[in-house]
Amino acid sequence: MSLRTAIRRTAGRTLRAYFAAQSRLRGYRPRFLIQLGHMRSGSTVLTHILNTNPQIMGFGETHIRYRSAEDLQRLVYVVHRQLRQPWLRDAWIFDKVLHANKFESGYLAGCARCRFLFLIREPESSLRSMMHQFPTWWTDALLPREELQAKAAGHYDSQLRAIMQFADRLAGDERALFFTHAQLLSQTAEVFRALERLLRLRVPLSERYQLLSTTGTFGIGDPSPHIRRGYLDRAIPPVDLVVDAEVVASSRSLFEACCARLQRFAVAPAVVVSC
Fold first, then answer.
1. CB of 207 within 8 A of CB of 187?
2. Which CA distances in Å does 150 have to 104, 129, 144, 146?
3. Which DSSP state fits 56?
4. Per the count of CB atoms within 10 A, which of 11, 102, 178, 216 is most buried?
5. What are φ and ψ of residue 55, in 5° steps?
6. What domains, with CATH codes, occur in the chain?
7. How many helices (H) and strands (E) does the chain have?
8. DSSP for 74-109?
């Protein structure tokens, strides 16, 4: 083990002990806001909009795998450390979860202190965006179009299936909100008001957002330059890539099924899900 690694691990243990001591002394019981979706769903811009609100703390995708209460406590530590916030704040602690293996244990669904946002996007634009953004799909070379398309559709389809399974575990309708990427763009005010009611926010949400130290960081959120504009941009041009019609049709069936399954979480009557 290098000296640098040893120092970082020691510092990490010290910080975790510090936050644990704060938590015990204050009787700190944080609330958690977990955004579930798939890659290229608009999750990064929503993350920035939410975390600009003073009652929400987060920065993007932490990649924590949630299996127990200890993992939620780890989220508290990771968020406060990343935001350089030394004092535990009475705020929603936020994470964005875009991979099923991070929530498949089912622990989160049973956590009474968690609230959930389901955000999905129609398949054709999602698949095109994934293929454009990840042309190597975490390999060392550009993938042929058919192989890349299969990777994108595999992620999209598996995420929607996992989200439906997760939603079925949630008791009651008051712990979650569902909306689509299209609604975020076209029914923004209605979606914002529904979020404010779900989270009991005193400060209204805004289309303009603050940039973070992690803005544009690959693996945490959208690395494209669009996210640095600081506002909800409705004029981003579509990606000009071909996705086979049969692939789109198969994923659209899942999209429509997912919309139907999540309909009960459209908690604001003004938000009507149109898939």
1. no
2. 22, 14, 10, 6
3. E
4. 178
5. -95, 5
6. 3-265 (3.40.50.300)
7. 8, 5
8. HHHHHHHHHTT--S--SSEEEEEE-SGGGTTTSTGG
**H or E stretch covering 191:** helix 188-199
| pLDDT tens by residue, 45-54 | 999 999 999 9
Cα 136 to Cα 156: distance, rounded to the nearest angstrom: 17
Which residue do the tokens 């955004």 mark?
35
Amino acid at 151: K
Q: Are 169 and 66 in contact (CB under 8 A)?
A: no
- Token pair, residue 61, equals 């995708």
Q: How far apart are CA 98 and CA 43, in angstroms?
A: 9
Alpha-carbon distance values, 228 to 40, 65, 156, 209, 235 (Å): 16, 28, 25, 10, 14
pLDDT, tens only, 213-264: 999 999 999 999 999 999 999 999 999 999 999 999 999 999 999 999 999 9
